[in-house]
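@here heads up, posting the sequence + SMILES for the copper (II) ion run so it's all in one place. Ping me if the SMILES looks off, I pulled it from an old spreadsheet.
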Amino acid sequence: MFNRLCTPLIAAICISLAAFAVAPEAYAAWDLDMPIGKSTLADEIMGLHHLILIVCTVICIGVFGFAFYTFLTCRRSKGAKAASFSHSTRAEIIWTIIPTVILIAMAIPSARTILKIEDTSGADISIKITGYQWKWSYDYLDEDMFFYSSIDAASSAAAQKNSGIDPATVKNYLRNVDKPMVVPVNKKIRILLTANDVIHSWWVPELYVKKDANPGFINEAWFEAKETGIYRGQCTELCGRGHGFMPIVVAVVTDDEYRQWLEGGLAWDQTKQELIAVNLFQADEPADQLAAL
Amino acid sequence: MTDQTAAHDHHGDHHDAPPSNFLDRWVFTTNHKDIGTLYLIFSLVMFFVGGTMALIIRAELFQPGLQFVEPQFFNSMTTVHALVMVFGAVMPAFVGLANWLIPMMVGAPDMALPRMNNWSFWLLVAAFTILVSTLFMPGGAPAGGWTLYPPLVLQTGDAFPFMVFAIHIMGASSIMGSINVIVTIMNMRAPGMTLMKMPMFVWTWLITAYLLIAVMPVLAGAVTMLLTDRYFGTSFFNAAGGGDPVLFQHVFWFFGHPEVYIMILPAFGVVSQIIPTFSRKPLFGYSSMVYATASIAFLSFIVWAHHMFTTGMPIAGQLFFMLATMLIAIPTAVKIFNWLSTMWKGELTFETPMLFSIAFVLLFTIGGFSGLMLAIAPADYQYHDTYFVVAHFHYVLVPGAVFTLMAAAYYWLPKWTGYMYNEKIGKLHFWCSAIFVNVLFFPQHFVGLAGMPRRIPDYPTQFADFNAISSVGAFLFGFSQLLFVAAIWSSVKGKQKATDQVWDGAKGLEWTLPSPAPYHSFNEPPHID
Ligand SMILES: [Cu+2]
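bot reply: prediction finished. Complex structure tokens:
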């Protein structure tokens, strides 16, 4: 019985490992940790993450080490004889106090960071972001700028069931949009989040900002990007069939470029996935979007 | 009233042998062992139903692009997989163990309320028949996630009222089961068995039963509010009518967090029985184990909003829920240290139940630590709703709760059937499960940290490698579970008679009974010194 069960199992392992070995090279990205942050709070949050991760790992190694030492030395096959002790008040007090101290030490910096995350005062630019099934809209409150931002055509085509298009051939598959949110670097951006239908959640991992967009309510969050660049994220609250298909792209640009973009001088080039200069007189997309409302 | 009548009636039908008629034995039964068996078989079936759904999910996620299912169906799979595993597999399995073991452990002939016992089992079957049937309804099965957040859940098709009804029935079943456990433990202990002499499994179930009675009505209330919002014009969760969708999340998690402990406290009880047996040493720190269990249960009521840091909570709320959640680490750490100290200086042998219990202690530690990380609110803003969370709760539920269920099955099967299971198959099952469960869930930490949201049917290509590994692990883990069935079968159709003692280090009243245990456990109460 035993051998009959073993053979198919080993065969299954071999087949699946072989299948894995031929997986396309284009997928290789073995990120093990959070991305390096590009916002002012990112290092602090990542620092907390690393601190708690290290504390947990060290204790974990201690627990596993003690456990395996016990398994190796206190086993019947090594002739161990059972002791009969069943409690030790001193040990129990010690291992109640030590975790308590560690936890207090963790709680203090965490609380400090929460205060900073929640401090949306003194923002340079306020943008109202609305989640829809299944796209986002960006409304620049102090400017004449409003637009919808949906998944780009190439990702969308490849993401149809059995589309025949290899996602590896689509640049930034499922993380590209037709129109990105554009903000200037080194400016405190306050975002006001809401939703039109169901709950969504706005997250850009490299900017270390995530907040839910609740229909009928407005949530606040903020970030200040330290470097120009294109930062990508996705909706992180299950919002129906298109939940995996409402990406977020934030283009962080210089002040000048931001001004140009507001005036219609820069537009998002979907194939190149960067902001490019456009003829000012033909750039009427933001106005078109407003008219479409 | 009915409860009392049932309790009186059952004194009249003390027979020593089970009824020979199939219907009388397996449908109308009021015997705690037969009902326990029904619960355990039911949960095993549900484990495979939910597992099949998990494999559909992992098959779709094996590589980027949509190969097998449409996104809506994918969402139904994640939703129903969770509902089936939580309410159909893990909880009923522990109720099955409670039924089998509590009367034997406290020296009682049967559960206190045998007719209600029968009713609570068949209600559960009804609930899950309804739930699974929603897969075939217009609009498909519920697809808003097992957390049922409105407004999304209100977009469910024809399945919506059936889902709510199924949850109501299932809740009624759980409450009846819990009442039965509490009444049995409070009233039917053998003379001399004080509360502080009860086996840990009985203690953890007593506390779990109170948790269930406290929170199942909360869940019922939450889904009833959903029902009236959809059909009767109320606006509990609709801002346009003065409600708030986040209110639902508060109510749901007030149920949901204790629910997590409902699934893990009896697991603590199981390993607290098994580890001393195979260490040939008494459980280290029995009374601190009891107090730790009680404090975890208490804390479970005041941490619910740690699931909701990103919903827009006041700072004071975030600080409170962060600190309260971190506190849970203390009694949990006490438990882990106590189990390790039980093994320390013991005389260890590594039969299958012990192997599963050890894997539980070690892998639950990993799940506990990722839980502590999630408690750190500023970091949780990044972890929330990513695969990091998926990895975390699967670590506490699969090598956590599910492994202890398997440990329990291997540990008590010889007592139940009278025959030893095949140790080779058991060990093979253990090693396959313990290795593949890590192949399955460990990489999910990495993709979560790297930025992969949970509950998505398709993902950006940079997450492909770890997802492929995870899917391979899932299929290997899934098919390894057939070994569990083979091992159970080897005990049911066993060759090697089990002794009454079964395990040389086992302590407790259930081991004083013959193997297999007689139809009525203790007709004469044993005396405890
Ligand atoms: Cu969304």
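MO: Chain A touches chain B through 111 residues (CB under 8 Å).
MO: One more: The radius of gyration of chain A is 26 Å.
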